[in-house]
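thought: fold this chain, then report.
action: predict
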Amino acid sequence: MNSKRFRKYLLRFASVAIGISLMAYLYFSTNGEFTQFIKTMNLQTMLILIAVYAGILIIDISRLIIILHPSKKSVNPTSMRATILAPSLNMLLPGRAGDLNALVGSRASDWPIGQRTRNLVLLRLMDLVVLAIIGTILAASLLNYTLMVAMILAVIIGSMVVYKILPFLVGKFASVLKLPIGEFKPEEDQIALKRFALTGISSVIFWIIQGWFTYLVINSFTVDMMSFTTVLAAVAAANLSKLIPITPGGVGIYENALAFTLTYLGGISVEIAAAAALADGVLRYVLTASMPWIGLAFSTSTNSGEEE
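observation:
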């Protein structure tokens, strides 16, 4: 094994070890609240959480299909399988492996690879922009209403600026991820306002349902009802913390950031916040790792039955 590969595996091992350590730290911070939550969770609560998270995955998969295929005719079994597995592979493997697999699997699309790549980059870039906007506005509203109004005005102006420079941002973002979109040409790479707006709206809906899932998890604990806006602001901050590339998929970083934000904005105890954040993270990982594969197996068996 050469030194370069050894360093790669060493860094990966260190990354996993840091993630496990952060999760262990959070678990011991719960003072038994997490264990109590697992023991007392009833079937109805679990089914509701599974249903909501299934909705999150369906929305994410549907968005990928829409931005990779101009029509239903170009969606074949190969592209459908790759798209269904995208959320799971994004979590289990580094480098947005699920998105790249969906991109490669969509070769039957009527759009060329460059167009599909730009659409994919636009979608993920808008996810980050919308997440930052939601978190900033909600946090400002919780702290100071004057600041909230100022932030809303700044967002309106900022959105106009982002739209104007979006083709350039997409090109830069794709170059960092080493995605094949070709040479950037300002006169040709104009992004339609309709697609820009559609991507932004879908991102808002996606993150609101993400916040609703965490809201349901938190309210499963015996604590005073926390407002949905507070939870959504906490989820936005926690997801943005995952951009720090220290652990695989932000494992441990997301949960600790969520616990800290819930304590600061929500005013709940450290133990309850840590337990809720840990429960939220564990449920997300388990459901994301399993549900797409179950859906793929069900889809495959259904197609086989129809063919017979």
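thought: worth noting. The two ends are 49 Å apart (CA to CA).
final: tokens above.
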